[in-house]
Amino acid sequence: MLHPCLRCGACCATYRVAFHWLETDTAGGITPAALTEHLDPHRVAMHGTNAYEPRCKSLVGEVGVAAHCGVYAVRPSPCHELQPAWENGQPSPQCDKARIRHGMQPLTPADFL
Ligand code: SF4
Ligand code: SF4
């Protein structure tokens, strides 16, 4: 089974991915600060996501066709927290909303069979 996220990427092109600057590598974290932009005194955002039409610059590929995170191992906490709907038996309104925004149906439990 090809994981549904690898044919999607919608969440990476829907939301502002904001997180505390302490997650960046310049502060001892793992997410490269070079991939972020300043947001406020406490937070940074992944480049490209603090925009009217967000799209993380670390997203590789085409949304809804073939897409993956280019910095998966060092992605920040919001990217860990957004779970694909039904992968672990739980709904994910953020996943659903992102997919609908990009013209896709929300995932169902059948997508993980
Ligand atoms: S919107 Fe859902 S299915 Fe699409 S990449 Fe994000 S978590 Fe995966
Ligand atoms: S860092 Fe990766 S998982 Fe997070 S928004 Fe960007 S492309 Fe998506």
Could you explain the architecture of this structure?
The N and C termini lie close together (8 Å). The protein has 113 residues and is of the alpha+beta class. It has one domain (4-112). The model has no long low-confidence stretch (mean pLDDT 97). Strand 4 and strand 5 (66-69) form a beta hairpin. It contains two helices and five strands. The protein has helices spanning 77-81, 93-101; strands spanning 18-20, 36-38, 43-46, 59-62, 66-69. One iron/sulfur cluster (SF4) binds at residues 12, 17, 46, 56, 58-59, 69, 71, 75, 79. One iron/sulfur cluster (SF4) binds next to helix 2.
Brief sketch in words of this structure:
Helix content is 12%, strand content 16%. It has two helices and five strands, in the order βββββαα. The model has no long low-confidence stretch (mean pLDDT 97).
Topology:
Layout: E1 18-20, E2 36-38, E3 43-46, E4 59-62, E5 66-69, H1 77-81, H2 93-101
The chain binds iron/sulfur cluster (2 copies).
Q: Would you tell me the structural class of the helices and strands? A: alpha+beta
Q: Return residue spans where pLDDT drops below 50 for at least 5 consecutive residues.
A: none
Counted by DSSP, the helix tally is 2
Helix content: 10-25%
Mean pLDDT across all amino acids: 97
**Sequence of strands across the biggest β-sheet:** 1-3-2
Small-molecule binders here are: iron/sulfur cluster
Query: Element order, helices and strands?
Result: EEEEEHH
Major beta-sheet overview:
3 strands, antiparallel
Distance between the termini: 8 Å
Total E-strand runs = 5
Strand content: 15-25%
- Give Rg in angstroms: 14 Å
Overall number of structural domains: 1
Described by the principal axes of the CA atoms, the overall outline is elongated
Pfam families: CxxCxxCC
InterPro entries: Puta_zinc/iron-chelating_dom (IPR005358)
Protein name: YkgJ family cysteine cluster protein
